[in-house]
Amino acid sequence: MNKQKVILFDIDYTLFDVAKFRKKIFKSIIGFVGKNKIDKIDKILEDIYHTSRERVGYFNMVSFLEDVSRKFKINVALTNILKDEIFSDNLYEETKEVLESIAKDPSIKIGIFSGGESGFQLKKIEQVENFFNKDHIHIIKYKHLNVQKIIKKYKNFKIYLIDDMLDILYNAKKIDKDMITIWIKRGRFAKNAKPIKGFKPDFEIGDLKEIVSIIHNS
Q1: Which pLDDT belongs to residue 18?
Q2: 162 in Cβ contact with 184 (< 8 Å)
Q3: 32 pLDDT exceeds 90?
Q4: Residue 12, class by beta-carbon neighbours within 10 Å (0-12 exposed, 13-18 middle, 19+ buried)?
Q5: What is the pTM of this model?
Q6: 4-9 β-sheet, strand order
Q7: Which among 35, 40, 56, 180 has the fewest CB atoms less than 10 Å away?
Q8: 204: which DSSP letter?
Q9: Contact 82, 61 (CB under 8 A)
């Protein structure tokens, strides 16, 4: 008997263009601070962003803005930066089209497995939230620590896991050897990923459009 299919999408660099989003945040901060007041502010913000993310373990906007405020000796509050336009139009060009195509098959469950804070991450995909089954949305601050917990929920499903992080796919495959791992090779994590000995994802793609035929033919 064929198992029901569930597709678990990561959000950042998979559905959502984080680089584009980050530029909008930086632009808003620069507008608030004043570009002419601080030399090389773009580079400083980039460094603060990466340092903050590594310290917290995921991107925490409050923590990042606190670091920015300390660095520039000003008060950059969430209300100054997180306006609706910051979140709009950051989905990858093909995201909606691909979700529409998959959703034509009502037997396929479409879900999310993403790291970070739930409200913040859901805001990123607000434009396409209707495609996702609420029972299959898993947004956890420390994603790496919860791979086993989430994958085991789907022991009776055929899982398609789509992520830009190679180690997430590797750890998931160790839990369910029959799952289909799809590595989307875009964004800084994919670019800087080191090979994992003895592991190769089932598919490597550069564009989400490629998953449609994968899902229908495997």
Answers
A1: 94
A2: yes
A3: no
A4: buried
A5: 0.92
A6: 137-140, 109-115, 4-9, 157-163, 180-184, 203-205
A7: 40
A8: E
A9: yes
